């Protein structure tokens, strides 16, 4: 897995590119001069967590032949601002699941995702409390 | 810090949005049906590491009044493929620094970044070996 970053403008605005040519812009905290030109680096970790767990939930529900029509994910995180560096404290991740879904299968899919499959959750969960919840919309 | 994700197309292609309205697309590993429509979630962690450490290096060198003309960052990572989940094993991050820079000040900036300032490095370094290196181009 390879990522390349170049500075795009100003002091803190970077562009990151993966090996498939996809790009995303980053920028610093406004406190040190960031100008809102991209994602903050710590936001990228939450994006990774949402993508990783979302993909795993979709994958497990699909294998269970559950009729998942759509999925939306909301993540809120707090940081340990009194520590240096200010790493994440609590990460809340909520899954909105659309379809005529079986509650037990949804709970099984979420348990498998967070206890077994999701690499990003495993990594971030070593230093933060990750809380997950769900709502089924049918 | 809040991130929202929606499913954009197919089963595994998500779009993530931060509170400033910036978006980035994600996609799954081709092994489970990903189609290369976005960054892989684990790539997002490397993007965050590059951005976080790059911003901190720029910030420290700027405070030191070092003449940093440009910066490029390359990251390569291996995963513990024999484990479940396959988290990162070794992450190599190389800084290409452009300008008439003082070696001692560059080394001090990198040490401060990885030992003190960079939240993402602190988080990922709990489960992976992070190796950093640099080349000064002047």
Summarize the structure.
The structure is a homodimer of 138-residue chains. By secondary structure, chain A is of the alpha+beta class.
Folded structure, characterized:
Chains A, B: Pfam families: OsmC. 2 copies of one chain form a homodimer. Chain A has 138 residues and is of the alpha+beta class. Chain A folds into 2 domains: 3-32, no CATH class; 41-137, K homology (KH) domain (GMP Synthetase, Chain A, domain 3). Helices cover 32% and strands 35% of the residues of chain A. Chain A has 3 helices and 6 strands. In chain A, the strands form 2 sheets. In chain A, strands 1-2-3 form a 3-stranded antiparallel β-sheet, with no helix packed on it. Chain A has a 3-stranded mixed β-sheet with strand order 4-5-6, with helices on one face. In chain A, a hairpin with a 3-residue loop joins strand 1 and strand 2. In chain A, helix 1 (41-63) crosses helix 2. Chain A is globular. The interface between A and B is large, with 67 and 68 residues.
What distance separates the N and C termini of chain A? 39 Å
For this entry, what is the oligomeric state of its chains?
A: homodimer
| The CATH H-level homologous superfamily of the largest domain in chain A | K homology (KH) domain
Low-confidence stretches of chain A: none
Domain count of chain A: 2
CATH C-level class of the largest domain in chain A is Alpha Beta
Write down the CATH topology of the largest domain in chain A.
Answer: GMP Synthetase, Chain A, domain 3
Shape of chain A: globular
- Our Rg estimate of chain A from Cα atoms comes to 17 Å
Strand line-up across the major sheet of chain A: 1-2-3
Main β-sheet description of chain A: 3 strands, antiparallel
Protein name (chains A, B): Contig113, whole genome shotgun sequence
